[in-house]
Amino acid sequence: MAERSQTRMILRAALLCVAMLALAASSVAAALLLGGWAGTLVPLGIACATAAIVAVGFMEVPHLDAVSAISAALALALVAVLFGLTFTDELTRAHIPPGFGGMAPGEVSTE
Question: InterPro entries recorded for this chain (predicted)?
Fold first, then answer.
């Protein structure tokens, strides 16, 4: 009975690893082949799917006790806030054009 359980666990881990490797390959392919927003959003979605596989498959988040589940939810909420702040900063930042300040790009001030 224990051998059957151990074999099943190894098979499950191997399948999860194969799925994660396939997602990694598709993420690289999407980043290289897609342009614009799709080249960014598709790999981010694939990364979220990979994180979900790790959380559900290896960490067994659905079977946690209440305190651990609350901690996992708070960690996920903190990561979402950090991503939101990062995207907000990037979208609202004024980009400095080349040659700003009267100097050519790569020129060093001698003052």
Answer: Caa3_sub_IV
CB–CB of 45/31 below 8 Å?
no
Q: Is residue 89 part of a domain?
A: yes
In angstroms, the CA 77 to CA 35 distance is 29
Q: What is the pLDDT of residues 40-66, one digit of tens each?
A: 788 888 888 898 888 888 877 778 888
Task: Give domain status of residue 100, yes or no.
Answer: no
Query: Domain of 70?
Result: 65-93
Question: What token pair was written down for 64?
Answer: 């946690």
**Number of neighbours of residue 43 by Cβ within 10 angstroms:** 20
- State the pTM of this model: 0.61
Quick check: 54 and 19 in contact, CB under 8 A? no
Domain count, the chain: 2
For 95-111, write each residue's pLDDT tens digit. Answer: 766 656 666 666 666 66
Q: Do residues 86 and 46 share a domain?
A: no
Whether residue 3 is contained in a domain is answered as: yes
